[in-house]
Amino acid sequence: MRLGIKLLNTSATLNQFRSVDQIRISQGETVDLFFQLVDLDQGGLRYIPAPGAAVQVQIPRSPEVIAITTNNTRQVVDPTVNRAAGNPFSEDRSIWMISLIDLDTAQMVSNSLRITLSEGTSTKIAFVNQAIKMIDHQDQ
After folding, report:
1. 59 is in which domain, residue-wise?
2. Is residue 108 part of a domain?
3. Listed residue (44, 39, 32, 25) closest to 107, CA to CA
4. What is the model's pTM?
5. Does residue 140 fall inside a structural domain?
6. What total of structural domains would you count in the chain?
7. How confident is the model at residue 54 (pLDDT cuts 50, 70, 90)?
């Protein structure tokens, strides 16, 4: 099985999701990012992992992210956002979600996603190039 993912709009209910080419995010925005696991060997049919499976998401940020701390010191921040994904809907375990907070997106540029699925002793990886498009508030 070759793992793939479909990006989904940020709908609030299971029956209103639709596939999108990119997730559009404004810098500094807090957003829930939804995606669906698919089996590329089965023509992109949804893939429901085994119970207990884990999904990790990695999103690169700009190459050098500097944060100013409360005491005005400069601190280099990890250039990758790492999140464990969760299933927001028990009715469909093919759909996963991560939450990005304002600090995650503040220094983000248009980026790719790396998804790692761990099922027992099996690990599969999927990439989506240019999955996130950073936009100005005027471009929305």
Report:
1. 3-135
2. yes
3. 25
4. 0.83
5. no
6. 1
7. very high
